[in-house]
């Protein structure tokens, strides 16, 4: 039976509806899902119950034995280290849209505007702006700071800038891309 892979969590994760376990690790699995938004909703919901190492949308395994022997077992030490490092943390995205032109001005203004969020963050990374934002950032913040970050972003929505936030998300932007495989992020 083909399984959709959602993310690696610790065995016994309280928000994982269906898992395949190997030692102290578990892969959250389900029936193949054609909707990327549903996949993101699932891995985002998992964050509230503990750290999750998200798996790329559309990744499937033939059966539970493949999940245990080809996915969890070979990378168990890396998964454990990442889960420990991300315990109690979540990724949030902050998108800023400016009404005044000038990229140098926007970058300097972003640093000032986001200083309160950055102070709460354990780490941050600039993301590609895309079509809907002039500046986009990912912040790795404590779960207990999510409401403070949300309120800080809401207070930015004046003075020539529109600010939005998305979170909590799995820590996609803070996982080592060098160690990714066909089974991971």
Structure commentary:
By secondary structure, this protein is α+β, with helices and mostly antiparallel strands. Helices cover 31% and strands 30% of the residues. The strands form 2 sheets. Strands 1, 2, 3, 4 and 5 form a 5-stranded antiparallel beta sheet that branches. A hairpin with a 2-residue loop joins strand 2 (19-22) and strand 3. The longest helix is centred in the first third of the chain and has 12 residues, at 36-47. It starts with a strand and ends in a 16-residue tail after the last strand. The mean pLDDT is 88.
Layout of strands and helices, then pairs:
Elements: E1 3-10, E2 19-22, E3 25-30, H1 36-47, E4 53-54, E5 60-61, H2 64-72, H3 76-86, E6 89-98, H4 103-113, H5 115-120, E7 121-127, E8 135-142, H6 146-154, E9 161-169
Antiparallel strand pairs: 1-3, 1-4, 1-5, 2-3, 6-8, 6-9, 7-8
Task: Using brief descriptors, characterize the structure shown.
elongated; 6 helices; alpha+beta; 185 residues; 5-stranded antiparallel β-sheet; 4-stranded antiparallel β-sheet
Short description:
By secondary structure, this protein is α+β, with helices and mostly antiparallel strands. 31% of the residues lie in helices and 30% in strands. The chain contains 6 helices and 9 strands.
């Amino acid at each position: 039976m083909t399984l959709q892979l959602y993310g690696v969590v610790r065995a016994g994760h309280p928000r994982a509806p269906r898992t395949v376990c190997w030692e102290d690790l578990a892969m959250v699995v389900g029936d193949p899902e054609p909707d990327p938004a549903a996949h993101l909703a699932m891995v985002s919901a998992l964050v509230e119950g503990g750290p999750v190492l998200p798996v790329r949308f559309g990744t499937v395994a033939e059966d539970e034995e493949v999940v245990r022997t080809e996915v969890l077992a070979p990378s168990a030490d890396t998964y454990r280290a990442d889960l420990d490092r991300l315990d109690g943390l979540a990724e949030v995205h902050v998108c800023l849209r400016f009404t005044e032109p000038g990229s140098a001005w926007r970058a300097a203004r972003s640093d000032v505007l986001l200083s309160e969020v950055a102070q709460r963050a354990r780490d941050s990374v600039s993301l590609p702006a895309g079509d809907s934002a002039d500046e986009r950032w990912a912040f790795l913040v404590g779960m207990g700071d999510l409401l403070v970050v949300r309120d800080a972003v809401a207070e930015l929505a004046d003075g020539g800038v529109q600010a939005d936030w998305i979170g909590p998300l799995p820590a996609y932007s803070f996982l080592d891309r060098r160690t990714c495989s066909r089974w991971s992020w």
